[in-house]
Design goal:
Elements (H helix, E strand, L loop, with lengths): L3 E9 L5 E10 L4 E5 L6 H9 L6 E6 L2 E2 L10 E4 L11 H11 L4 H14 L15 H14 L4 E5 L7 H18 L2 E6 L2 H7 L2 E6 L2 E6 L1 H6 L4 H6 L6 E8 L2 E4 L2 E4 L2 H12 L5 E6 L12 E12 L3 E8 L2 E8 L9 E6 L5 E4 L8
Parallel strand pairs: 3-8, 3-9, 6-7, 7-8
Antiparallel strand pairs: 1-2, 1-4, 4-5, 9-10, 11-12, 11-14, 12-13, 14-19, 15-16, 15-18, 16-17
Helix pairs in contact: 2-3, 2-4, 3-4
Bound molecules: adenosine-5'-triphosphate.
Adenosine-5'-triphosphate (ATP) binds next to α1.
Protein name: Glycerol-3-phosphate ABC transporter ATP-binding protein
Pfam families: ABC_tran (PF00005), TOBE_2 (PF08402)
GO biological process, one term: carbohydrate transport
């Protein structure tokens, strides 16, 4: 097992494209870290640099304290799991899992023992003599994981390993990977574009956009204290809603609404805005802070647009002036499109972003 440290790592591709900018991060020994962000944000490139599959244009990469910038992938003692399982079609599961060990000259009996051990962990024992084409997608991905485990590497690097699986299997495999991580305690870096996968799996999550780290935090911290509009909108489902407004006399005022902030929060927002001399803000509202219960706080007049009953809860999209908010209401909320109503919310639980810098100043 090993810590992984990236200091001001950058990647310029040959065409001059700057795919990763100044990426600095210390991943602890045994930690499970998830890189998440929209397509093209540089998460795979960063993972591939750690693996040694891409050159590092600038900066320093250490694995287990050793600078590995110029080491070949096989000298880095890491195992990679890809979205495409990359299994050898003509080999059995047992042969696929043991192949790398055999190449390394590990004695036959030891290979068999390590493959059996990994197969037990992944519930593949009964499939060891089958070939990949005789397996389901989930079983193939288990074999790919098994192949990584048997090598007992210092770290696992996983690039969207569950993307080819259907939704139900993805949830099952998420649990399997986390269980493996608990059992083995091997440092793991996991790339996904799916924020739910990131939230449910990571000890820490690295949110990326445009080749840059936006925020590094635990799942709850990201959810509760997003540093900017991008992180606020990216993490959470249904997504955070944003209303444009201005700070005026302790209230956020916008098209069709005025909400009083708690005094300390209004002071923070005023101080944050003063740094840039603006007054415009974006108010960020999580769906669960909106309620039909008067006791919930400040009133917000809205008109129902779309109602999505999901059984235990109802997701409602509403218009507030020219803006839109999404509320997560109880399963029994009976609402009709175009119905005018009043929502209530605790403004202490809103997020206030500087509209100019998009930084969270609330
Ligand atoms: P995805 O989820 O779509 O895989 P990603 O966040 O993993 O996205 P990367 O694959 O790291 O993104 O790519 C980052 C950026 O670098 C993208 O804009 C991509 O087009 C660009 N890129 C990737 N490989 C190359 C290359 N070989 N040459 C030039 N540009 C590249």
């Amino acid at each position: 097992m090993a810590a992984i440290s990236l200091q001001q790592v950058r990647k310029f591709y040959d065409n001059g494209f700057h795919a990763v900018r100044d990426f600095s991060l210390d991943i602890g020994d045994g930690e499970f870290v998830v890189f998440v962000g929209p397509s093209g944000c540089g998460k795979s490139t960063t993972l591939r640099m750690i693996a040694g599959l891409e050159d590092i244009s600038d900066g320093t990469l250490r694995i287990g304290g050793t600078v590995v910038n110029d080491l070949q992938p096989k000298e880095r003692d890491i195992a990679m799991v890809f979205q495409s399982y990359a299994l050898y079609p003509h080999m059995t599961v047992r042969q696929n899992m043991g192949f790398a060990l055999k190449l390394d000259g590990v004695p036959k009996a030891a290979v068999a023992q390590r493959v059996d051990e990994a197969a037990r962990m992944l519930q593949l024992d009964h499939l060891l003599e089958r070939r990949p084409k005789e397996l389901s997608g989930g079983q193939r991905q288990r074999v790919a994981l098994g192949r990584a485990i048997v090598r007992k590497p210092q770290a696992f690097l996983m690039d969207e390993p569950l993307s080819n699986l259907d939704a139900k299997l993805r949830v099952e495999m998420r649990a399997s990977i986390l269980k493996l991580h608990r059992q083995l305690g091997v440092t793991t870096v996991y790339v996904t574009h799916d924020q739910v996968e990131a939230m449910t799996m990571g000890d820490r999550i690295v949110v990326m956009k445009g080749g840059e780290i936006q925020q590094v935090a635990s799942p709850m911290e990201l959810y509760e204290r997003p540093v900017n509009v991008f992180v606020g909108g990216f993490i959470g489902s249904p997504a955070m809603s944003f209303l444009d407004g201005e700070l005026r006399d302790g209230c956020v005022v916008g098209d069709g609404y005025a909400l009083r902030l708690p005094a300390a929060m209004a002071d923070r927002v005023a101080a944050g805005l003063a740094m840039n001399g603006g007054r415009a803000v974006k108010l960020g509202l999580r769906p669960e802070i909106l309620s039909l219960d008067r006791a919930a706080g400040e009133p917000l007049a809205a008109v129902v647009d779309v109602v999505e009953p999901l059984g235990a809860e109802t997701i409602v999209t509403l218009r507030v002036g020219g803006g839109t908010v999404v509320a997560r209401l109880g399963g029994h909320a009976r609402l009709e499109p175009e119905q005018a109503l009043t929502l209530y919310l605790d403004t202490a639980r809103t997020h206030v972003f500087d509209a100019a810098t998009e930084a969270n100043i609330g």
